[in-house]
Amino acid sequence: MSYPLVILLCVGLLQQTARAVPMDKLADSKTCGDSECSYVLSMATALDDFIAPDCRFINIRKGQMVYVYSKLTAEEGAGVFWSGSVYSERYVDQMGIIGYFPATMVKETQKFMEDTVKIPTTDMDFHCY
């Protein structure tokens, strides 16, 4: 790889980071499978369509499989929003995009992680890029 190409890539990454828009925090803590929230907690099936209201969220379609990575912890103790990514052969363009969705829009079908950790959310959890 040539140096000018590396420099252009670095500048592009810096510009993407500079465009991050802070959004309101949805919760002060979250439940994850590990301290980085990199393990899938569970699989869920979408019960209905959900259209993302802003860039923190993902669109899900009824019947779509959703990988759940974290569950936000509301002050009342019940998780209102979960974080995950969708999987579907029909909506391949959405695969790999992680975002929030209402917990009530999905039904957990398989749990992978019994042992979970509760960690505080950070402002970066709710930035839009």
Jot down its keywords.
mainly beta, SH3 type barrels, two-stranded antiparallel ribbon, 129 residues
Question: What is the secondary structure topology, with strand pairs?
Answer:
Elements (H helix, E strand, L loop, with lengths): L2 H16 L2 E2 L6 E4 L9 E5 L18 E9 L7 E7 L11 E4 L3 E6 L5 E4 L6 E2 L1
Antiparallel strand pairs: 1-9, 2-4, 2-8, 3-4, 3-7, 4-5, 5-6
What would your notes on this structure say?
Helices cover 12% and strands 33% of the residues. By secondary structure, the chain is mostly beta strands. The protein has a single domain, classed as SH3 Domains (SH3 type barrels, Roll). The strands form 2 sheets. Strands 2, 3, 4, 5, 6, 7 and 8 form a 7-stranded antiparallel β-sheet that branches. Strands 1-9 form a two-stranded antiparallel ribbon. The longest helix is centred in the first third of the chain and has 16 residues, at 3-18. The protein is globular and about 30 Å long.
Based on CA atoms alone, the radius of gyration comes out at 16 Å
Largest sheet: 7 strands, antiparallel
Could you name the CATH class?
Mainly Beta
What is the domain tally?
1
Succession of helices and strands: HEEEEEEEEE
Distance between the termini: 27 Å
CATH second-level architecture: Roll
What best-fitting shape do the alpha-carbon axes yield? globular
CATH superfamily: SH3 Domains
CATH topology: SH3 type barrels
Low-confidence stretches: 4-18
Number of helices: 1
Strand residue percentage: 25-35%
Average pLDDT: 78
Strand segment tally: 9
Signal peptide: 1-20
Organism: Labrus bergylta
Keywords: SH3 domain, Signal
Protein name: Otoraplin
